[in-house]
Amino acid sequence: MKQSIKTLSMAAAVSLTIGTAAQAANSWGLDYEEEKELQAKVVDIACELSGDCPPNCGDGQRQLGLLTAEGTLIPVVKGGSLFAGGVDELLSSCNQQVHVDGLFIKNPIMHMYFVQRIKSRATGKWLRANQWRKNWAKRNPDIKKGKWFREDPLVKELVAQEGVFGIPGLEATEE
To answer: H or E stretch including 78?
Structure first.
């Protein structure tokens, strides 16, 4: 009996260790998705394609991507926050190597990457890709928790100008 309890305790400890060490990206059930860690350089996509290279990858005003050692340029189109891009997650690593974990979408039309975690160069620990949400909260201190996209002043302004679907004159119905 003691041996069984000891064996069970050791198995539980090993599974907990493996579970935290091997934590991977969360699947979203998207077509063409692949849970994938990447080691790549953070780049300004427009700079890579055109040679127009403002300092610090455009200070958050440009689309960022990951350039692999093989020369593949992968746009980062989303971070860990709901409906938010990945620029805030990667801007501090402009023109530097990063180790990221997320979903690589290998759509035949266009490949893209949704970063969910970033490995800290300082500690070697995985950090959640939630910098965008933190930055948004600082810019909007009066808005409390909830679905940010329903409360964001810019989103509200755009919906007022362009309609719910982004098409002027086409409004949502109650149906």
So the answer is: strand 73-78
Task: Give the pLDDT confidence of 50-85 residue by residue, as tens digits.
Answer: 999 999 999 999 999 999 999 999 999 887 676 677
Per the structure block, which two tokens stand in for 144? Answer: 């409390």
Cβ–Cβ under 8 Å, residues 65 and 45: yes
The CA-atom distances, in angstroms, between 13 and each of 10, 17, 20, 23 are 5, 6, 11, 16
Burial class from Cβ neighbours inside 10 Å (0-12, 13-18, 19+) for residue 167 reads exposed
Query: How wide is the angle at C-alpha 134 spanned by C-alphas 128 and 140, nearest 5°?
Result: 160
- Per DSSP bridges, beta strands 33-44 and 73-78 are unpaired
Task: State the pLDDT at residue 171.
Answer: 62
Q: Output the six-digit token pair for 173.
A: 């119905």
Instruction: Name the pTM for this structure.
Output: 0.73
**How far is 14 from 22, CA to CA, in rounded Å?**
12
Tokens of residue 72, six digits = 């593949």
Q: Among candidates 63, 21, 24, 61, which has minimal Cα distance to 45?
A: 63
Q: Which residues pair with 84 in a beta bridge?
A: none
139, amino acid identity? R
pLDDT in tens, 140-160: 888 876 777 778 888 888 888
